[in-house]
Amino acid sequence: MNIQLDLLARERMNLALLQNRIPLIQKLQIGNDTEDHLENLKLKIISDPQGVLSGEIAISSIPPGETFIVENPVISHSWDYFRNVTEKIRGRVLIDLLDAQGNTIAKTFQDLEIEPESVWLGQQAPLELLVSHIMPNSEVVQRINRKAADFLKELTGNSALSGYQSKDRERVYQTAQAIYQAIREKNITYSEAPASFEDTGQKIRTPEQILKHSMANCLDISLFYAACLEQAGIHSLVFIIQGHAFAGFWLEDKFLPRPLEEDAQFYRKRMELDEMAAIEITNATADINISFSQLESLGKDHFKNEENFICGIDVTHCRRHARIHPLNDSASLANRTTEKRELRKEEAELESRRFKEFQLPENVEAREKELDKWKDKLLDLSFRNRLLNFRPNKGTVEILCHSPNEIEDILADGAAFEILPEPRQSSLNLQRTDQQEILTDQITLNFERKKLLTKISETKFQAVLNSLYRSVVNAEEETGANTLFLALGILSWKETDRSQTERRSPLLLLPVNLRKKTVGGKFSLSLRDDDTVLNYTLLQKLKRDFDLEFPGLDPLPEDESGVNVQLIFDIIRKIIRDKRGWEVKEEVWLSEFSFQKYLMWKELDNHYEDMLKSPVIRTIMTSEAPKEIPEFVSEDKVEELLHPKDMYCPLSADSSQMAAVLSAANGNTFVLQGPPGTGKSQTIANMIAHCIGIGKRVLFVSEKKVALEVVYRRLQEIGIGPFCLELHSKKSEKKEVVKSFYNALEFNSDGLNGEWDQVSEELKTSRDGLNNYFRELHEISPSGISAYKAFGLAARSYDMPKVDLEFKSFLEYPLAELRELVSKLKNWEEFAESLTNEEYLAWATVQKKEWNSRTEDVIIQLLNKIHSLIKELERISADANHKLPLNPKWKIVNWLALGDFVDKILATPEITSGFLKQGDFPKYQSEFYENLEHLKNQAETRQKLEKIFQAKVFQENFYELKQQLQETREGFFLISFFKKLKLKGRLKNLIKDKLEPLEKYDQYFEAGIKYQEGLIKEEKASRFVKEAIGEEYQLTIDGKFRKAMAWAEDVNKDLLALYSSDFGTAASAKAFITTLVKNRSLALAESSEIKKELVQKHEFLIVMRTNLNLLKDELELKPECFEVKAAELAQKLEAIQNSFSLFRDVTTMNVLKSELSQAGLNPLFENVDKGEISKSNIYQVFNYNFHRQWLQEKSEDSNTLNSTTGLQLNKLDSDFKNLDLKYRAYTEKALSGKISADKPRMGNLILPDSPVGLIVKENKKSRRHLPIRKFLDSISSVAQTLKPCYLMSPMSVSQYLPVSPDFDIVIFDEASQIPPWDAIGALSRGKQAIIVGDTKQLPPTAFFSMKSEDESDEKIDCESVLEMFGSIYPEMLLKWHYRSRSESLISFSNHHIYDNRLNTFPASDTEDDKVSLMIVTGKEAFYDKGKSKTNVGEANAVVDEIFSRLKEESSTGSIGVVTFSSVQANLISDLIDVRLQKEPQFETFFDVNNPEYIFVKNLENVQGDERDLILFSVGYGKDSLGKISRNFGPLNNSGGERRLNVAVTRARNEVKIFSNFHPRELDVSTSTSEGLRLLKEYLLYAQEGHTALLRQQSFNNVDEFDSIFEKEVTDALRKKGWEVRTQIGVGGYRVDLGVVHPEYSGRFLAGIECDGARFHSAKSARDRDILRQMVLEGLGWAILRIWSTDWWYDSGKCIDKLHQELEALLAAPREAIKKAVKDIAIPDSIAENENSNSQENEMDVLQENLPPVVNSQLYDPTMLEINPIGEFFENANLVSNQMKGLVQALAPVSREECFSKVSRSWGFARRGNRIDQFLETCSKGIHRTKSNGQIFFWNTPEDVGSIEALRLPPEGQQRHPSSIAPEELLHGFTPILQSNIEVSKDLLFKEVAKMLGYSRISKENMKYMEPALELLKNQDMLTTEDEVVLWRG
Length: 1929
What we know:
Blueprint: E1 3-9, E2 12-13, H1 15-19, E3 25-32, E4 38-48, E5 53-62, E6 67-71, E7 76-77, H2 79-83, E8 89-98, E9 104-114, E10 119-120, H3 139-156, H4 169-184, E11 189-190, H5 197-200, E12 202-203, H6 207-213, E13 215-216, H7 218-231, E14 236-241, E15 244-250, E16 260-261, H8 264-272, E17 276-279, H9 292-301, E18 309-314, H10 315-320, H11 364-369, H12 371-378, E19 397-400, H13 404-412, E20 416-420, H14 427-431, H15 435-448, E21 451-454, H16 458-479, E22 484-493, E23 503-516, E24 523-527, E25 533-534, H17 536-546, E26 558-559, E27 562-563, H18 565-576, E28 583-592, H19 596-606, H20 608-611, H21 615-622, H22 638-641, H23 655-665, E29 670-673, H24 680-693, E30 698-701, H25 705-717, E31 724-727, H26 734-746, H27 755-778, H28 787-793, H29 815-833, H30 837-843, H31 853-878, H32 892-906, H33 921-946, H34 958-967, H35 973-988, H36 1001-1013, H37 1015-1029, H38 1038-1059, H39 1063-1078, H40 1080-1083, H41 1089-1115, H42 1126-1138, H43 1143-1169, H44 1178-1197, H45 1199-1203, H46 1206-1236, H47 1251-1260, H48 1268-1274, H49 1276-1282, ...
Parallel strand pairs: 2-9, 11-13, 20-21, 29-34, 29-35, 30-32, 30-33, 31-32, 33-34, 36-40, 37-38, 37-39, 39-40, 43-44, 45-49
Antiparallel strand pairs: 1-3, 3-6, 4-5, 4-8, 5-7, 8-9, 10-12, 14-15, 14-18, 15-17, 16-18, 19-21, 19-28, 20-24, 22-23, 22-28, 23-24, 23-25, 26-27, 41-42, 42-43, 46-48, 47-48, 50-52, 51-52
Helix pairs in contact: 3-4, 3-7, 12-19, 19-50, 19-51, 23-24, 24-25, 24-46, 26-47, 27-46, 28-44, 29-43, 30-42, 31-41, 31-42, 32-38, 32-41, 33-36, 33-37, 33-38, 34-35, 34-36, 38-39, 50-51, 54-55, 56-57, 65-67, 68-69, 68-71
């Protein structure tokens, strides 16, 4: 295969290059010279030795004859390999090109030398990489600097190495000396440097190596010294000359603007200014100590021989900007032993030196010293100025006339002259001797007819006048001033009497208008309504050089028709009469002059002190700070600062614009950066309106006419135009000025009657409602959560477990703690993932938090033991022969309880089995204890009584005894006495011992009473107890009875606990206990089988309990761990045993779990441990519930979120939009009413001598009005109220306004192109200034200068007033880009120039590429480098494009042409004029009076302009030999990127670039021009689209979401069948979701905005709710909105509503859809008439006019029917057969049409990815071809070459060329070509489009016909030349 594989790579490589990202391979080029289309290729990059580097690059395809280039491919390097290289290694880079099967089809290689990292490669690598060998962090450097600090301490008393902190050059110099002395002390010996080291490099010693061996050459020691300086904070330099190196340093805190400088003079000048010093540091190795001043002198000498000087490298720039970092190999040497060497013993001294004292140019005081320079710039008294040295050239026209005075008089009377070329003389006249008289007669005759003859021949007349006309128009647009004057009279003079050079200077300058009616038509000349002026520049020159004064000329003398020209001439003649060689010549010349800057000079020269009255000028010129600096308004505060009724901004404004407006109104002076298309003019108009509204006067200044006009037009639109005075260009005519003031007097404003206040209040209420909602929605709580986020994460529809977390407050939970908590939870989750669910549930019972090996060994033993015990337990459970009933369903805790139960059984007391028969044992037990207690009480009472009384007492009645005792205490004492005797006698018979006092027996009688009362119950109780226990109650065995019942209680409980779940087992157990109780002695005898069994079980269960308790203690098991069955416990323990290697992880998990549980997650872990929540979902569940509970808490605090629904928000949003429109309309009326209320009223009492009377008087005049300056001075008292705003150019400010800060604010636009000297005068008129511009756009420049006699194209950029202000005042930035209708138009600049700071908006096209590149070929398509410096081929292509667009009915946009050079612009303009003479119907498009006329401009004067379509002619490029010079004019120079930025940002809709070379042919690898590099990038961007822009795309193929909310909406829409793309756009603003139109895949059906982060990021309600949607809808979007509150509440309802809205958009009328997509370059974009009736009529005509097509057939896919059966996705075979049948009937048929036909037949209204993938699978096996991105299906491969006809659509239908295979489409071309032989390509394509049913075809869609034409060309059937097709047959 003939495949060319070329490799461009470096021949040497080392770690330094690798570390600093210098690519090894610079370019790989693959040329496909075969006839095959190479696809799926792979470039494989390897190395020899292996592993050094590797890489693979996939290449999708390379068409035949094309070349694929890869620049700087990404390669993987082995850092370790490069780091370990100690000596040079030779190797190779091997490149293999592999095909799809992995076969090598081409290969190449390049030898490579791999050097150690210590080797500097010299000029074989970027020289600045030398800085990587400077190692300031070396330990040796630290030691040197410590010694230097000691020297400084000793000699100066201050040891600080403080760099530039002291701002003292002397201290820097001392520090450098001290470092030198410290190095010198080390006694280093000089070593000769390798020969030519500056070319080939050398191995460089590190600081450690230098001191280790005490050896260094010049480069080593220079780098060592530079490292020490850098460490000390001093900016060091390294200089390289032929064969030598030395060092230097900056004495001031500066560094170079670039890494290195090759100009020796550059350094000499700075050393002469004492800004830097160069040191011959090699002498640090000399045996003789040389003073530091001598070292400096020797260093300075090296700069004298410029031929030997190579470069100086600035270390600081390389570090900070080039990011060249030190190599890190000193660490490996740090610990090596240093050879001991005796130190030099020298006395250290620090020399002092005097430094030149002067103020730095940056100081403000120096700016005052620049005044003289500024004056020189304004008043050019050199002979480059044509006002002093006027010479005829191509821009001058000599007028033939007899009397300049008469011309002035006629013009002053309002007449106009026609300008004619030099009269042609007849052959007879040419032979006569009185030719001069004949010419005189001709001049006179024509003059009488108001015609002026010139000296221009007829052949050159049109070209010269056209060129002059274009130049005048351009100058007026650029400067806002007229530059065309009729020069009356020429002063011929000499500089000295002996001078042979005649100087010619014009005297009087009449401002005139040059008009032309048609191209090639007549030119007329008329006087502008402006003042005639004297050549003041000449007068100043004569005064300065010759001390000549010209009295009587100020003011100029007048006659009845204007100025008295003759008198002026005579005055001048009288003054110069004694001057030899001086003369006034009465010549008349028409030319361009710029004298207005004289006035700027004059006021700067004479009124500087007055200028300083302006605070702005005072700050600039004297550095005097303002007394008070007002506060700037931030973007997010623009709606909070003022009530709507206090703002006067009628025009729509975003937050960045409003911040600028309000900051200006606050009194701030600042720079307003306005990148292209960000609405500068609209912002300025709002700024002016608001400032006027609050009572301020505004002066708006711009040199650009278009800027002034645009702002005025906006002010006019909002109703305050009458109060604004335009004083620039033609607006500075006296009559216009007077009329403007008179109109302001007459203006009357309608009242508002309170509507303004009402609407303002309603707007505020509506706006606040929306803002409050969004504030609440996006307000971040201390926990870092917003309601929006919570809505997305905790939607009600989520199927998520609800767990109530235990936090005191969710809203107030600290974010840091939440993050820490989440981190711990995720860590826990990661640990948990290492366990299976079974293992986790087993380990979940383990709470152990510490691990040690002893514990692990113990646990393993226990697990083994317990494993065998459980097996035994299972055996016992399964044994059916046991006496004691067992329940196999028992849990471990039951078995352990059984042990206790058995223990109780073995201790069975004497008791009956009655308790087992009780249904209600607690009641029985209570009754037992009650009876037992009674028996006990009875027995104790009897026992107590028996101690006192005899047994017979119980026969007595204790109640009677007590009664008898009571009677002894009553009645007469004698009776009482006898009663006591009686009682005592009775007691004596009853008591055992002697009688006690009667009172003591009272208690016994009471006890006896109770005893006798309880005897009946005692009998019953005795029976009850006996039945329960089996024996009689006795007090002595009361405890026995109680124990027996307690045992019964325990047994009963155990029975319930163990057996209650199984009635059968429970009955058996009761029977067993009954038997045991009844036969207690036998059953529990030692020989009893029952006892043996019980003992065995008891012992086993004790062992088991012991081991389980040990395990529980060791693992700290949960209390409920044994509440499982034996098998389950065995399973868990086995799981633990099997995963015991994770024990340590489990302990870590438990620590985390404990901390998390304490924090509030305990309920969550409880659910996880129960298995109710998956451990893998714990974070997800936590996240959901935390946000759910956060929302609950938030809703309790916020009524706004609780009560606001989507319907309410939509209503609020709609109301806000309507009120905003209404408010802005009322603002206009309020503003005009406020201004007009203060102006004077027209009436009958106006005095003629008053200012108002003067205005009325002047307005009545038809001519000879007062000069404007005098008029303004006369009416100054009313001018402020009538005209609170002036719009002027800088020149007109100086011309018409006094030097006084009469204006509150000066707004200066397009300031990047204005030098300070041009702006200073205008700025002095204000107390405050707003400087508007863009530092990324054009600077002030002298390039393309037209006003100088020197026609050089040299460019001199200078500081702009914008940059000057930017260094003093703060800046604000306009961020929203509005101009581009396609984001691709601004994306390049936004990315490369503005660092993506602009908010750009995506278009509604899915493929947004409106920047295209046309490669122009042909004989004339070359850059004429040596001669005209034009490219004729390009110019013709541009002109053809213009007229082709004008002829297209569908093309209605405006057009602009931009060129790189003025000569190319002139050529295109000339070609347009030639074309217009042939096609005059298009002249109106080029008329400069048309606001959107077609302009042709070069780079330097296109700033501020914009058009729908910009045609960009590069001009430069390949010369006639095919070579590309890298000279691209202004683009090559510094600031070239700013010029390119201006050029590429002028378009609203489209940019088309014309070039004669492909982008990759332009080699910029060796160019330092940023402009040239960006040009190549831009051309690539135009060719490849967004893929060239960092491989970004206008939409993302990979989904990106800002929130889970967006993802869920996307997923739900896709389930509904919609194709959804996310994050549409490449700039600052992106549409959240885009739904692709199912029928027009190149367009989005709708954009969907979620009220998320991007929505909330809007700084104001207008940004959020009005502007975004307005801009997007303007770009073709239909925007639908979905509210997060609604989604959270009912997502299903939301998605259904969204689906319905999309369906409604889809069902829109077809005509509307066609209209919406007419400009999109997709198959459906061929223009169609919207009116169906007219379309049908047009089709009839078209069909009649179709060329004869013999070989045509009918193509009607509607005749085919496809019948769906069953489910689509389940019938692959059926669908496949249907597709094959479709192909068989229609082949060739496009895949798109085939898929659409099948899918619609199956009922799908639109196709998504799933349907396409399914159809693709079904279509496998069908033969296919590919052309221009389209795929076509064929029956067989043989059919491809056998097509014989183009099938046409049925009448009234259409067939798009993109759906037709080229092999078929070419048959539409052949009959036309056969009949006509030669046809233009455009016409041929249009005729074939007519055959296919279209009346017109767009340029974009012609590309689908190109492949068919190429097929015919490849068959040698035709050729093409200059877009013309020639038939060869």
